Fold:
Amino acid sequence: MIYLDSAATTFLKPACVEQAMRRALHTCSSPGRGGYESAMTAAETLYTLRERAADLFHVPEPERVTVTFNATHGLNIAIRSLAGAGSRVVVTGYEHNSVIRPLTAVGADVRVAASPLFDRDAAVRAFKLALDAGADAAVVNHVSNVFGFELPVYEIASLCRKRGVPLIVDASQSAGILPVDYRELGADFVAMPGHKGLYGPQGTGLLLVSGRAAPLLAGGTGSDSRSPRMPDFLPDRLEAGTHNMPGIAGLSAGVEFVRRLGTEKIRKRESALISRLIRGLSAVPGIRVFAPPEEGRGGVVSFQPDTVDPEEIGQRLGEMGFAVRAGLHCSPLAHATAGTVRRGTVRVSVCYFNEPGEMDAFTGAVLSLLEKPCGLFQQGGTCGKSL
Amino acid sequence: MEVYLTCRSLTYAQSVSRALGAVSIRNMIVRTPQNMSREGCGYAVRIGNSSLDAALEALDARYLPPRRIYRARPGGGFEEVVR
Structure:
């Protein structure tokens, strides 16, 4: 299989991640639950993750690095901390359902700062206008999970700071690939998954916290046990219950892998792979490639066949051994921005471990499918045309 | 004689421990004895009494004050050290 769905999960991991997880299974019990060796080994493993992440994302104190189950979990904490019924929340036109659904669930007044696809300046202008119309909070997607477009998050963060509007940054597609500077952003929350660009296992994530945080879960923390309420200090306030120690150990190894390699090197490689793919796909007749601008290009690109259903293409590519994701990618808002919400797209996303030859093989596979569309439909069983 | 620097959380205790280690003060993270913890379960950093002044100086420099400080009494038990 050629795995090209790293925007969902980086399936190809560095060997150190599995090694760390195996080691944790045998050496770590629960942090904060005792002073014996396996509890303290777990505590050290968890703290090392916080230190590494604090260093990578420029967080002044490791306590502000809290662990979550995924980015969605972190975003839910952040949104419920800042927004309630009627809160005016400004978002970009690229947000994932992990933002839109929690905002809808709390009854927020969601205000989309819509702007044309791939236009950074227009995105800033639209956001400024929306903020000036009145805002209680803002959420910004750093990189679109559908189109790989890097939004001007630092410029938008500056607009929010000047207006005193608390900000949540969704770094799901940027953490580990682009510099994410918590200090420079000045955001109240930065949420990210562990299982994408940080190369950790599924079921892990990080939430960087500076603002007031409302716990999503209440329960035991191993601290301030006499109180029936959650502690008022981080990270305990947001980390009720037993930690996922094998996951945390794996994530820590992944973060260290990224730290040692450097986001610049990772980004350059992914960008080169995607640029190669864009060149190849652009020569395939019958498809539209949504190529993000070279500046800010990461490891994601989408394309839409003119006549064939993207899901059908995705399915057939899967049967040919290429793992890609088709459809709306849980981001109907981003598809609305691109005008692709009716049919969706096929998304291709890479990680550091993909090879240039895989891009060429993929282009060849798309070409071969589109050269024989009737064969495709026939085998897919959905063609209404006569063959 | 030992001194306990009680901390609000295990993570905080780890930050305290790292800060002390950085200035070569030997220390150990331990569970806080219940008779010196008003809040319930928690962690403390145990150091030697002779290191207390240097430890507090190092922690002040890093804005990491302990929650409370307890010194072991020669005859047993602990007394709180008020700064």
